[in-house]
Every structure is written in structure tokens, then in C-alpha cells.
Amino acid sequence: MLRILLALAMTIVSFASLAQEDVIAALEEGGNVLLIRHARAPGTGDPDNFVIDDCSTQRNLSEEGRRQAAALGDRLRTNGIEVSEVLSSRWCRALDTARLAFGDDAVIPFAPLDSFFGDRSRRDSQTEAVRERIAAFGGPGTLVMVTHQVNVTALTDIVPREGEAVVLEPSARGFQVIDRVAFD
To answer: Which end of the chain has the lower number of beta carbons within 10 A, N or C?
Structure first.
């Protein structure tokens, strides 16, 4: 019985690795979008005294999150994935994720990627602006967007873990979800 369970576990690991490699191959082709939930930042939402330009008032990346963000960038570089543009929410945890992965100079703050966790009235307009930006992307390389769980879920119905990404293929209708990928 133990042998069967071990064999099953090994098969599951193999399939997971194969799926990850297929996603990486899709990114290598270019023309796709990598929609990333920011790396590990303990807690939920933001404190009552949240100020967008003051990171000391926000939920921030943990040390684990900082390592996770750096690993994301390393994995893409190791696989030779060309990143043509990096857009990020203006929240510090998203900006830090993007900067640790891709470098300070590569990151462009993009307000439609900002969290609407505390203000759902912005959900539809922000989601539509992001959908339009995704649909307009045709390459070369990969468009990276770093955002928050609520934004990813509004776009894709997927609830990603921190540091997890959803790979999207732009289309005339907006996009198709290719798969999910974790970089830690």
C-alpha cells in the first residue's frame, strides 16, 4: 500500500513539473501576459491609516515574500523569458514584488492594477481597463502585471496564492487563461 501511495505521489509531482514546464514554454514563445499576485505579505487588506505613498502605513512583503519575488525574476531569467514591460499596482507590496523580480527601472505603476479590496465600487472600471490593456498586448516578449488577489479573481475567477501567477493569452475577446504557475 505504501509503495502505491509513493508511486502516486511521484506521478503527481511529475505532472506538476510537466505543467509548470508547459507554462514556461508558453512564456518563452512571447506575446502572453503574466498576471502575478504580489509575493507573501502577511495579513489581509490594508490598515485603516493606509496612505498610498507611505509604505510604513501598508501591509508589506515579509522576508519570505522578498525571497519569493527575487526567485520569480530568477526563474524567468534562467528560462530566457523576455519581459517587454512590467506594470504594477501602486501598493508597496506589489511594487516591491515587481522591483525585486525585474529591477527598479523596469517597473511602471499602473493604477488599474491597484487593489479595490476596500472599495468595490472601483472593481468594474479597473477590471475593464486591465482587460483592455491585456487585449492590446501582442508582444514581443511577455507583459508582466503585478497586482492583488481581488484583481486577479475579478479578471479570471481564479483565487491565486501570494506569488502565484496566471498566464494569459491575449485575444480579440480579451484573453484566454493558459494556466497558473508558482515560482517558489
So the answer is: N
